[in-house]
Every structure is written in C-alpha cells, then in structure tokens.
Design brief:
This protein is mainly alpha-helical. The chain folds into three domains: about 70 residues, no CATH class; about 60 residues, no CATH class; about 80 residues, Alpha Horseshoe (Serine Threonine Protein Phosphatase 5, Tetratricopeptide repeat), CATH 1.25.40. It is about 75% helix and about 0% strand.
C-alpha cells in the first residue's frame, strides 16, 4: 500500500504540466479514493479513462495490473465460499457470498446471472443442507438447474417431493417445482408419472420392461436416469450391464456389473454374470 500511494503522488506531480492535467488529476484522485474504499472496479475504470485521454501515461498500466491482482486476491475466498455453500445447499448464504464478490467485481464472469437465479431459489428454499435423501435430491435438482440439465432437475425434485414427509418442506418443494415448470415447461411435460409408484421404482420397472422388449438402448437410458439420482443403485447397474451384454458390448457390461458388485459384494446374480463373461472370454481365446 505504501508503494501504491508513493506512486500516486509521483504520478500526480508528473501530470501537473500535461495538457488536460485537471481532468487526469481528478480521475487519478477518484481512482485513489475508490481503491482506498475497496471499490477496485471503479478505480480501474478511472485509470482506463486516463489512458483514453492520454495513452502515453505509464502509471495507470501498473495501477490497473496491481488492482486486478488485488481483486483476484480478495475474491478467492469469497468465490470459494459461494461455491462451497452452493454445493452444500446453503443457498441464502451462497447468494450473500455472490453479492460480496460482485460488490468487488461486478463483471465477474457468469456470477451475476447465477446470483439472480440463486436469489429466486433462496426465496423459495433458503437452506437444504441436511443429510437425508430429500435434501440430497433437492441439491441435485438445483445443481442441475444451474447446469442447465432440466431432465435431472425435474427427476430429482419430483423424487424429493415423493419421498418427503414434512408438510412445511412439502409446500416449499411444490413451490420450487412450480418455479422450475415455468422455466422449462416442455421438459416437465416429458416426465410421465404412474400413480402409486415413486419415480425411482417407476424407472426401475421401465428399465426391466425395456429389456423384455429388447429395447436395450431405452433400458440404458432409464438406468442412467436412475444412476443420476443414486449412483449406488445395484439394480440399475445390473440392468445396465445386461443391456450392454445384449448389445454385445462386453466391456461396458463388465464395467457396470463390477460396479454393481461393489455396491453389493454378496450379490450372487452379479457374480454369475461376471463368471459368464469370464467363460466367454476364455472361450474366445482371452479376447474381450
């Protein structure tokens, strides 16, 4: 900081005899005041304006570089706080962290849009940082919303609503779904629900039905939707492996069956499937 103010003083002295010195001097004073107040973006704009008036000026280049470094240094913990709270489902706190970042750098890439969206989400559900299935599904849904993945967004939110037993939270989930439906009406219309069956069970049944119909690509699609909600779904991994096996994609079949075995090490059916692949490989002379 001491070096900065010495440079400022030298600069002001140097411009006193320059054409338009009054304008440049006023801009430089504004830059120093903004910098001292932590308004770094405003300070940078002042120095950029100085360069527009007199491109030959040297100090503003150094000051802009120095201030951008200062911005980066001060923003790092704030951006980390935003991302951490965002992933944790602490959306009101994350929104506040985003506002603090934008106070320093209003042009921070992509954050203004995220802040606005998060403000709308936090207005419906302030916090969803619990460890139960419902909070986990809601976090998946909101993260999918920010990732522009409406299919997963609706799957997770609908499943959360089906699992939820809390009346107060249920009203918030319904409001969140209503908000999402207004954003992506077509995506919501593609989610067909069966009465008396939650979405997870419905998709597991659909994956099995697809296999019976020899629609193996469709079975894989349903399994992928299930695994997006629960990556440890043994049944989804088993059926996905079976679909790949039917498509003669034995590498993917083995990969999914091995993952299924990790989720359920005592599963006899999965062991049989893997033994079948081993026998097939041996019969083919070791080729996969």
């Amino acid at each position: 900081m001491r070096i900065f103010f010495i440079s400022a003083a030298v600069f002001l002295a140097s411009v006193s005899l320059c054409p338009g010195a009054d304008d440049i001097g006023a801009l430089y004073n504004s830059a120093v005041k903004n910098f001292s107040a932590g308004k770094y973006s405003d300070a940078i704009r002042c120095w950029q304006r100085i360069l527009e008036i007199d491109p030959e000026q040297v100090p503003p280049h150094k000051m802009i570089e120095f201030t951008r470094g200062k911005i980066k240094q001060e923003l790092a913990p704030r951006v980390q706080a935003f991302e951490k709270n965002m992933q944790a489902g602490k959306w009101f706190i994350a929104h506040d962290a985003a506002c603090r970042v934008l106070d320093i750098d209003p042009a921070y890439p992509g954050l203004a849009e995220k802040k606005d969206k998060l403000g709308e989400i936090a207005g419906i559900v302030e916090d969803c940082s619990g460890s139960g299935k419902v909070p986990v599904m809601l976090r998946k849904s909101v993260n999918a919303y920010f990732d522009k993945n409406p299919a997963l967004m609706f799957d997770a939110a609908i499943y959360a609503e089906q699992l939820n037993k809390d009346i107060a939270l249920g009203k918030k989930i319904s409001a969140l779904l209503f908000y999402m439906e207004k954003k992506y009406p077509e995506a919501r219309s593609r989610v067909k629900l069966i009465a008396g069956m939650d979405l997870m069970k419905q998709m597991l049944q659909s994956s099995l039905d697809s296999i019976y119909k020899a629609d193996y690509t469709g079975a894989i699609m349903f399994c992928d939707r299930i695994l997006a909600l629960d990556e440890n779904s043994t049944l989804a991994l088993m059926r996905k492996g079976s679909a790949y096996y039917a498509l003669n994609n034995f590498n993917e079949a083995r990969k999914n069956w091995q993952l299924a075995l990790k989720t359920d090490p005592k599963n006899k059916d999965v062991k049989k499937f893997l033994n079948l692949l081993d026998r097939k490989k041996k019969k083919n002379g070791g080729k996969k």
